[in-house]
Target: Mitochondrial cardiolipin hydrolase
Amino acid sequence: MLLTAVSAWRGLVVVVGLSLAAEGLYYVISHLKRLRERRPAQVLFFPAPVTCVRPLLLSSPGHCRCGLSHRESALSCLTRLLISARRSLDVCVFTISSLELSSTVLAVHGRGVRVRVITDSDYMALAGSQVGTFRRAGIEVRHDQDTNYMHHKFALIDGLTLVTGSLNWSAQGIFGNKENVIIIENTDIVKAFVEEFGQLWNEYDPAKYSFSPQR
Amino acid sequence: MLLTAVSAWRGLVVVVGLSLAAEGLYYVISHLKRLRERRPAQVLFFPAPVTCVRPLLLSSPGHCRCGLSHRESALSCLTRLLISARRSLDVCVFTISSLELSSTVLAVHGRGVRVRVITDSDYMALAGSQVGTFRRAGIEVRHDQDTNYMHHKFALIDGLTLVTGSLNWSAQGIFGNKENVIIIENTDIVKAFVEEFGQLWNEYDPAKYSFSPQR
Model:
């Protein structure tokens, strides 16, 4: 009887131990999954109210006494996200003329993060395009060379966070139009966009320019 | 001693029972979560090769002997998804001139599914816009009435599946440009877009047209 009781207790201890181990394993896996999918998906809708985002671009917290509002907006959320890049910022947008977003890209580059920009050749040449400013600052910019549009409007932060939607990076897009931007860290989706960026970056390598494109 | 052994066995049974119950609960929750997020997120990249999608629009499986390819493409994936609408199809796109996608919208409407379309007033009036065809078929179409753009490019299938990206629903978008479309069933994201659609549908109610918009 004593032996039976001892073996029953042993069984109990084993079962409890296994349960605790399984529970612990579940939490470790959940934690790793949370680390992988760092933040929940988020949606920003535009037009955004006109706000000042300059303080967000400073390396150390600062204040701005301009007359604009400094409250949170879809633009400040987007700025805060882009400026959070630590290793890389890959931008693939049809138009980039917004002074707020181009200042953000320049600030990220200024912090030593590798910035690459892909854009559309037709709109790159229009007044207001910030491509010249980027190139003068040493940012690598590549573009298509045909009459179809490089019409994507996405960015990849550290190769982990995808920012994508209908928003062209222009003042009209931000402050005028009905637009959407999704921020997502779903591994499969991000991987597909990382691959798309890599393919376009390679396809638009200046070494491959023909300078007599088929039109 | 006998009592101790019995109570140890009872404890063992309770622990094993609780472990099994917890495991069962975990699987039920996982299953419900999978049902909620019906299919994994998917990305389509364009331009798509020119393919025929007409057989996909037939109520019963049919063949088409036209000279075009009938293989799978980003366009056929998108068509198959839109045609799968059973209760509602809410389309909110800047431009809709693609004959393939407008035929799909008409086919969904023809099956008795409630179709609502929101578009941009400036592009609605251009040659090739399918808005007139939609209205003649009895599909409800609403639009903005200002000079900014209703620039969204999304659709909601049965209020559960979101199709969104950079793609205008035009031939150039589908067969020419570099474009992306994400198909996603993340509950929070879908909810945000359902609300955005509802707000715009209400804002663009013809009863509210001023016919002398502030420009």
Remarks:
- The mean pLDDT of chain A is 91.
